[in-house]
Structures are given as C-alpha cells and as structure tokens.
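Slide 14.
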Amino acid sequence: MTRTQSLRSRQIHLDFHTGPAVPDVGRDFDAREFARTMKRAHVNSVTVFAKCHHGHLYYDTRRPERHPGLKRGLDLTGSQVEALHREGIRAPLYLSVQCDEYAANTHPEWLARGEDGSLVGRGGGTWFRAGWQILDMSSPYQEYLAAQTREVLRKYRPVDGIFFDMCWDQPSCSQDAISAMLRAGLDPARPEDRQAYARRVALAYMRRFHRMVRASAPDATVYFNSRSYFNLAEEGACQSQVEIEALPTGGWGYMFFPRVVRYARNFGKPYLGMTARFHKSWADFGGLKPYAALEYETAQMMAHGARCSIGDQLHPRGVLDRAAYDLIGKVYARVAAREPWLDGAKAAVQIGLFQAPAAHASAIESTGTDEGATRMLTQLGHQFDVVHPDSPWERYEALVLPDCILVDAPLAARLRTYLGRGGKVLATGTSGLSEDGTRSMLPGLGLRPAGLSPYTVTYLRFGRAIARGVPPTDHVMYERGVRILAGAGTTVLARVVEPYFERAWDHFSSHNQTPADKVTRYAAATIRGAAACIPYPIFSAFARHGNYPYRLLVGKVLDLLVPEPLLRARGPTGLETSVMRQKGRSIVHLLLYCPERRAQNLDIIEDVVPVFDVPVSLRLARKPRRVYLAPSRKALGLEYRDGRAKVTVPEVRGHAMVVFE
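Slide 15: predicted structure.
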C-alpha cells in the first residue's frame, strides 16, 4: 500500500507564520524533544513548514527569502522531518501560495488588483492594518513559487507530501491578468469573465504543481487547501486527499464539518477533519481550547469516518507548548483506542440531500439552506449524504431538494426515472418549480402552482394526518412561500393560513407580523405517492429562525416517505447519530455535546452532560451475533424483531459507539 492510500489518523497541522521582525527563530529548538513530544501525544503525522505566509523559508538555503532571524546553518524544516521520521511519524511539508509578504513587498507588481486598480488584501478599509497581501498567480510570481517548490522537493526527496495553502480562485485586474484574459478571448471588464479566468489559472497551476511533486516523489500526497470542496468532481485528480479545515470557534461553526464531510466522503479519497487547539482561530497564542470541545470535534470526525487533524502554531523559538500537547495527547489517546472500529469504515445512508447553489464558490461557502437542512436532518436522526445534481444519487432511498434547486429538463428526466424505480423525493421552496413559482418543472409532484405568495409572513396549519404531537395552533412561517394547489391524486398534509393584509409602513397592526385571518385553499405540504412538496424555503427559514414546527413538518413528511429509517435513537434533539460499516459489523455513533454561547460571537463546550438509557434501533437484514460498546467491549442486551436490532445504551457521555456484529 502506498502512502497516498494511507492517510494517518492523528495529525498535527503545524503553522509557523513568523514575521521578519522576530529575531530569535529556532533559538531553543531541540529536534529530539520536538519529535518525542509529538510521540507522547499519540501523533502519527505532522505537516511541518517549509514556507510561511510571510514568504520566509525555514531551511538552509541561499535564497534571500530565508527568514532573517533563523539561526545561521539551522535547517529547521529538515531537522523536524528527520526527527519525526525517527519516531515513525509522517512529515509532509507546508508551502504558502497566494500569501507571501516577502514577494509582495519586493515585487508589488505581482500583487492581485481589484476592479478599481486597488491592491487586494489587508482589508479593514485601510491599507495601514496588519494583514496579508494577495499574490496574482497569473504573474511571474508563479515561477518564483515553482523555483521554491523545486528546491524543497530536491532537498527532502522523496517528500512525504506537500500541503499547498491559500489556493482559492483569485480574480485580478493586474496587467498580467488583463493581458492573459484578452489572449484567451475573455472580457476583463466583465466580473463573470474575471471569475472564469481565475478558475482557469487555479486549475492550471494545481495540475502543474501536482505533476511537479509526483515526478519527484511518486507516492507523495499533494493537497491544495482553500479550495471549494464542492469542486472535487473536477479537481479530485489534483488532490490526494480531502482536508476539511473547520475550526468551529474560528468562524466555521459547528455545522460546517458535518455538512461538508457528507459530500467529500463520496469521492473514494482519504479524508480528514481539521480543527485546532486554539480557543478561537489560527495563531491564537495563549488560547487553549477546553478538553470537552476538542473531544467533541474529534468525535465528530470519527463518527463520519474522517481522520483527525489538530492545528497548532509553533512558538518562534521552536518549543512546543506543553499544555497544548497534554491536551492533544489526551484527545488522541481516546482516538487511538477507537481506531479498530474506525479503520476502513464507510457511511451507511438513506437520503441524498442536494447541495443548494452558492452565490460564489469558495472554500467555506454556505447558504442558509444547506446549513438549515444539515441541522434539521441531523436533529431528525436521518442518515444522509450531500449530493450535487450531477452526482450518482440514484442509490439513495430518498432525495431532498431543499428550497432553491433548479430542476432543468435533464434533471427532471432523471428524477422521473428515479421515482419510477421506487425512489422518494421531497422538494421544498421553489425546488421543482420555476423561480417565479408559476410552473411545475417536476410533474410527479402533482401540483398546480399559482406564483409567489403576496405575503411575506403566513401561517401553517397541520392537517389531521400529521397533527399528532404538534401543538394545535397556526404556526408562523417567517419566509415567503409559493401558492400551490393540489392536483388530482395529491393529498394535502397542511394548509396555508394567510394574514389580514401585508404589513407596511402605512398599514400595519401591532409590533410584528399581521395576525392570521383565514385558512386558504393553498397547500403548505402535499404528498402524491413517492413525491412530497413543502412550498416554503423551510430549511433556510430553520437556519434563520430556529422555529421547531418547521422541523416537525419536515419530520412528519419524511416519516411518510421513509417509514423505516435506517436508525432510530430517542434522545434530546441535540443528539447526533451516524451509522458506519466495516466488514461484518455496523457501528452506531451517538454524540451529545452542547455548544453554549459563552461570548458574543463564540460558541464553546466546557462541560459534557451525560444522558442515560438511550433506546437505539438499527435496521439490519439479519440478527447480529452480538452487540457491545466500543472500546470497552461491554455487551448490551439485544432484541431483534421485524428486521430491526434494538438495544438500550446505558449512558452517552458525550460520545458512545455501539457495535453490531
């Protein structure tokens, strides 16, 4: 097995973005202690730095970019690699791409420029603020980076891998970019042409640098960070693995990783989740995350079959933070104990959730729709992947088309075939309809659309068939929907109640939305055979407002479409579940950690509150031979009836793993 097929499971991503004003770089570095600290912390791979965002190099070289504060003769990069290898620890190398302060300051003509000619970067409304300048990869800077990369590949041949960072599509109006766009027949005055050219540039240099690395080290991993994960179908040939950078406290939030991993895991490539030990985000020196938070973040990775990576930044003098590695060691000891039930595990899912289109593809793009859908389906306990319209989604038992999926003629044809073969579809918002809500693009829904509602806010009245357990009132819908009428053979599950009038400055009643007036003939939820519709952007509404009746409505409709879910687990709505499969066994992960708003813009976890006696029911074709908890191997009592294996988990203290063999 080559290295490209075996991504290590307990990684450190070690930053070292050290400005030239720091005078004592590597002064206290002890290679042996560095590697042994990693070993004691159960780390088996460290991405170490060759070049940082400041554009400085940390090895022995005659290039002028070598950090001016690095001790003469010290090959800091090479010493780390050699020491880690002695301990059996993998050591891919880090190179910064579009952030390079040294190159930016010595060659300002290489910088990307905005439409108004201003330089890209720094930000904050002023150039006189600390921050990164952004290089233009259509300028001669690309050759400069190639020379650095060739030197690293030659010096450390064969490298374990190269991690190229800061690799997004960067539109630019530099003279180099404008000239190249004109040669390519593009109009640099058009934003869409600039974006298209930026994508061409990125794809071209990714292919170039990928070939360069593999020519030097055929088994090396190559990864370009800061790319859109939803471009993997096109870019996968350049990516040896998928590294999902998602620091929950650093701006990504706790829903980013579970949303993206459900898409990224479907490309046959090793994948990992990357968080960090910092209280907030990267380079938060002195900020140490509570253990419970780091346990949760790595437990999420394990539950979705991902390897684990924890980010850190080495102090300029070269000494690892002892408290940080005590924390990491405790977390990684826990991961190591569970690896027999993680290695080679694949997700078992029932539902394909279409990815909502983003206004602009970036590495951390998100819409309220996809975040709300991920949150809601997770709370409902469904097992699902995220898919694109061109993905091979026919294998799923049901599809969810959330809020704004454009159904063109080819997609409509595929969906008709899918429904004809027994698949189920839930479409919400304008999915399956024209954007103006006047035409049905998916006849199987059995609807007569009547256009967008004239009311910003309406109300939902659950019908008798789905009213059980729902408070008997008209529930407010804060987002505009589509007026639809049920066609022949279509059952109305909920109706729209409209207000007296649309609220306006000269025509309003009380503090907020206008009260409900009367139930209408328009449907708020329908089902016709295997196809259901909720004509509201209910997932983005859930992300924006968190109104729990929206979850009740979607849950009731999915119960009709998927009456036998793969997994049932009764517990608090914050319970996260996943089903993973290895040869001869199914592993159910149960996670219950509760992030709290502990600061104005920061959710964090400090405490793990256990829950007891959680009933779990897994759909299995045969009765398992035994059921136990991992890693303790404590046996659980089993009841098997009607194709379902039922157990009661005595305690979920943050994360429990139930193994059905």
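Speaker note: Confidence is low (pLDDT under 50) at residues 1-5, 359-364.
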